[in-house]
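User: Modeling request: complex.
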Amino acid sequence: MNLLNDESLLSHDRAHAQADAPLYERLAAHYRRVIASGTLAPGDRMPSVRALMSRHKVSLSTAIQVFRRLEDGGWLQARPRAGYFVRRPAASKLATVAEPDIPVLPEPARYVGLHERISRVIERAQAFPDALNLGGATAGAALYPTERLQSLASRILRHKPTLLTEVGEDGGAAELRQAIAKRALTADVTVAPDDVLITSGGVEAVNLALRAVAQPGDTIAVESPAFFGLLQILESLGLRALEIPTSPTTGLSLEALDIALTACPEIKAVVAVPNLQNPLGCVMPDTRKAELVALCARRGVALIEDEPYRELVEAAQPARPLKSWDRDGGVIHCASLNKALAPGMRLGWMSSGRWHARVRLLKFAQTRHNESLAQFVAAEFIGSGAYDRHLHRLRDKLRVQREASADAIGRYFPAGTRLNLPPGGLLLWVALPDGRSSDALFEAALPHGIRIAPGSIFSNSERFRSFIRLSCPVPFDERMDAALRQLGRLAAGIA
Amino acid sequence: MNLLNDESLLSHDRAHAQADAPLYERLAAHYRRVIASGTLAPGDRMPSVRALMSRHKVSLSTAIQVFRRLEDGGWLQARPRAGYFVRRPAASKLATVAEPDIPVLPEPARYVGLHERISRVIERAQAFPDALNLGGATAGAALYPTERLQSLASRILRHKPTLLTEVGEDGGAAELRQAIAKRALTADVTVAPDDVLITSGGVEAVNLALRAVAQPGDTIAVESPAFFGLLQILESLGLRALEIPTSPTTGLSLEALDIALTACPEIKAVVAVPNLQNPLGCVMPDTRKAELVALCARRGVALIEDEPYRELVEAAQPARPLKSWDRDGGVIHCASLNKALAPGMRLGWMSSGRWHARVRLLKFAQTRHNESLAQFVAAEFIGSGAYDRHLHRLRDKLRVQREASADAIGRYFPAGTRLNLPPGGLLLWVALPDGRSSDALFEAALPHGIRIAPGSIFSNSERFRSFIRLSCPVPFDERMDAALRQLGRLAAGIA
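Assistant: Request completed. Predicted assembly structure:
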């Protein structure tokens, strides 16, 4: 298939339901896919403006806008007098984070005792409210469609003023459940609107999923490192965590999970973040996703999939969730709009397979239905072409921010620093050399007005004490550059 | 103190922070308090228009507006050629619901097994979506300040467009926590804004409170009858309920609670709704509230106070929550704006005494912070005089609706029907005569387009099977009258 001609562009567009986007946006999206799929590789020369005009029968100004969008998005690089070339990914000079060892026997499952440590970290950070926050996992408001959502909200309120004063719908607004079910189709997930349950962010979804499948004292297999919020949920529910080694490139080790499931038949569930794992940033290859679903089904263990970041993955095709391989309702799929669309709307959702009825009871008894207005705003935005256009821009901006930050880390951090540059999102997982303490770096950075996330909060063990999670929430500017230079200096000075 | 002169009116007004209300509103509020306090009793003649003009130095038109407001609110009744008289409460012709027996030994604590029964009731009702819903506990949108909230929301969004796209504040927006802490002062509760935690409705607050003080398998003392949502929470958390007889006039029986605490030292907490108990509608006298707090403190048992309805109580002074007697942090106070201000905003809050830190962890791990916009809208509305004006109107309208419904029940229901007419809210608790089955009445009413709440869902026992909870959510009109007539006929025909 020739990806560079008109026909394929149009068919791609149909598939991505972006028919209402301006022509230059559609063409730019087309070339992003061409580059992401490898048809145009890093260093390749981009077809000329003239070639674009004749190939796609567009005007000069449209062709120029396409180039501008791609350059702004960091996909192309202009070389004076030579034309445009596909940009090489940056930061390749740093070695990637090492793969974990797979022990013959798993560690024992343990109750989580992290909340105090995490609270101390948060409390310390709050003493420096003006610090540049590189310790969070949410992009700045400037990366989200703030004005569009605001005007949508006002318009919807004018048309449905009783949204604030009428009891909402159990399970969530039908409009939003429908929009989510429809969009799930693009990721090969078939789910009925009635199977979608709207939650207060992805956190509540994971919480409900765990309550549905486990009782206090039960054991849950989790990735190591894992999002500290998940470990706090386990702690708050009195569940034991069994940490499974997780590859910074291919995700949860299926080999290690297999060993753990054999050694500990009391494991009730596995929680995995297959797309842009937090903090590693890795995306599980599809073959391994399918294997994970099959393994859990074979062992009769619930598989809880947490994916706040899936829409941020850069790939030629939408990244697939584990749920798309689920045949017997054994996967509880938890997702959220916090990272992809609007951190302030607190919207998550879940599709709970064979635990649907129990999850509905738990949700009803826990928080009833969600606040209505945000649901209607999200339904309308997701249902329109605007959502895909926003996501394209968001992914582009985040890539530029990630790469610039990774470049700066390569320049400023001590030799031996290792780093994963993930295919999406805003998180970098950085290994400090020579076992330097990231807790010490966290403490040293605060008085310099810089907040980071120390590796110690991502595991119930001590094993990530010389890692840090750095986010790239805002456009890379002098303040970011200076902060990373300062961090590098501080890291060099730490034992 | 002469309540009828200018000075006391002004001082009252200061206390109620309504200085910005129009003069006739302030005067009407003054006379409502005079009537509620009994200074002007039912049947008393209201001072004349002329007397009002000279006493308060107001114009004829202002005086007339005062009379109109009081008449609309059902406080006064015009008698042709005789003037205005304080209205007698209606429905006095029905006997009140009988007081419960206080057994010498409590029933055993039992796990709650109500969810299926409740689900069946809800599912059956949903098959008749056009039915007049007298089974809910929320007033219709017309009783809430829909337009005002809508325009507030739009204005706030214009000024703070990033509310939708920025991460909210842990624990809730400072503005709302402050507004709530300030308002709590009017009910003799001193709480710092930092002690207030914003939740997803009152349901989440009670949920968090129970999770903070109890583990699965523990026993919780609850009122009998109790709000079915509370029983569902206990069921979802694997807690046992010990039902304490509750008086339809004075609330939770302290005698029975004392017996239960002696017989079952394993009781971890008591949950009580002291103001407008659901479904009974009773308000605990202040002396008993104080005794309940002291009893729980003496016994070392957590006291969880659920009060979605406090602001709907009609009394000369704001009704006091149990929390106002708490001296050692043993009371967890849970409240909500769902019934008083805006059912669609899903805002609740809690003040957790000595469990504050644990409740914060649980909330963070359960749903993080709330959606932001509704919090800012509520903060602004509560902080203004508009909230008190809205509550006056809401209470007036609900009283008229309650009394008209109670009148109609007296006219149409079979002889021997008993009824509580509560001092606020929208719920009537009705005892059918001769042990008629309310489940049968529920079923019989649906095909006639009428939905009620059968007593069977308000207890883990069978003891309320011939009770129904009827709500008065909308202005009494021909449809309501016809529905109650039909219900009466059906009740007469049931064995």
